Amino acid sequence: MVSSRSRLVQPSVTFGLSAKAKTMKKQGIDVISFGIGEPDFHTPESVKQAARDAIDANKTGYTPSIGEPDLRQAIKDKLEKENGLTYELSQIAAGNGGKGVLYHIFLSLLDPSDEVVIITPYWVSYPEQVRLCGGVPVFVQCDPHTFAIDSEDLKAKVSAKTRIILINSPSNPCGVVYTEEQLRLVADLAQQHNSYILSDEVYEHFYYGEKPRSIASLHEDAYARTIIVNAVSKTYAMTGWRIGFVAAADKEVIAAYSRLQDHTQSNPCSIAQWAAVEAYTGSQDSVTVMRDAFRKRRDSMVQLLNAIPGLHCATPEGAFYCFPRYELAMPSLQLAEQLLEEAHVVVMPGEPFGLEGYLRLSYAVADEHIPAGIERLHAWFAAHPVI
Ligand SMILES: Cc1ncc(COP(=O)(O)O)c(C=O)c1O
Predict the structure, then answer these.
(1) Would you state the CATH architecture of domain 51-281?
(2) In a mutational test of the pocket of ligand 1, which residue from 18, 104, 125, 168 has the highest number of ligand atoms less than 8 Å from its CB?
(3) What is the pLDDT of residues 249-281, one digit of tens each?
């Protein structure tokens, strides 16, 4: 019998659909996928070279479990230069990708029944990680058209039981970038109820309007209670390298994080750490190239989706996903399965992201897949009109 803890976690819908798509591809079926949450670009050459150099220099042993000082220095410099935030090295720790870092933060901060306020729609792993760490996810509604935070609902959900208010801007799955006013409301409520703010900034470089601002940069109190999580995964097309980091003014948080990581994972891959140093300190041209490509693809995908009867897609301001609403009376998981089987297109259902009646499509895919894949969806929806 497996543990009750393991049974708290739902199986991943995304993995299920991707496995089915893989089987279909093996059978020779031409499947177009908008499912994946990673850039279709390769890791920059200079970053790959830094990894080869690290191997040749035998930088292959254990490192401090929260990362080489060189990596933490590179992260410190990045935070100063890009986010206007000053941290000491003792306020920064590296870990195994954004996901591994987030999990260890929840482990570090949550006691049984502590609440984590999560804004809908959200990245699928947040509630699962919170539950695994004994916490209780509390969901806040959003505007169904713009995905702006429902301020009244946020005010109602933050309380003395709130340990963390979690924000993710730009957001996966809906691409919303929170306005300064919204960030200020989050910061005010965190101050009133003395909670931490966890700011997941993994999509910070993928924005198509104004550059998103870190909530930690609003004012001194916000800086003091914010824990920033970021990673090289999306920014530098390095999803497989597994390097993420946490920065927090509260040194106790980093000390707790470090103690836990010592006994669970030790250091993230030493070679990947040296690659990440190059990513943060070397040329940033690859980021601009990706952002420009994603902007064009976003524009084309939004336009094509909105031409489909019964689909409504807000223009995402960041990340690399469209999150259209559909009018069919069908659960999103069933719709995604049907679209895979009948239109041979992979899309993610909205339900595991906390918003039923929506689909998530990644536009971090080859240019030509967008018109071809959306054309298939168009034909499918035209054959299934809303009655
Ligand atoms: C919002 C968000 N945060 C964190 C992560 C984790 O990124 P990684 O663990 O690959 O660094 C992802 C990945 O999909 C994400 O979408």
Answers:
(1) 3-Layer(aba) Sandwich (3.40)
(2) 125
(3) 999 999 999 999 999 999 999 999 999 999 999
